[in-house]
């Protein structure tokens, strides 16, 4: 939504926004360069969870919050080394691996 001259302009996003993590983080679903693997950011998805024009940026933010707090995908990780490290060494993970979210994201629409 954009406010312009007392008129609200609503944009429909036919394609998912480009989201990149600018803060380096060690995460199974984020590469070292910041690319993020989140199903709702996919243009086409077999299971129907991908992007749809009815989704909003709020859905993206909620998905990213879940990704950082409790959603870990080890079946199809984007960062294989981080996923293997997490599975191999869960005890040290509790202290050092995933701190509370302190991240900077870049949205480009």
From TrEMBL:
Presence of keyword Transmembrane: no
Active-site positions on this chain: 37 (glycyl thioester intermediate)
SUPFAM superfamilies assigned: UBC-like
Keyword entries, A-Z: ATP-binding, Nucleotide-binding, Transferase, Ubl conjugation pathway
Domain UBC core: 1-109
Superkingdom field: Eukaryota
Single GO MF descriptor: transferase activity
A Pfam family the protein falls into: UQ_con
Record's keyword annotation contains Nucleotide-binding: yes
Gene3D superfamilies xref list: Ubiquitin Conjugating Enzyme
Family, as annotated: Belongs to the ubiquitin-conjugating enzyme family.
Name the UniProt record assigns to this protein: UBC core domain-containing protein
Native species: Pelusios castaneus
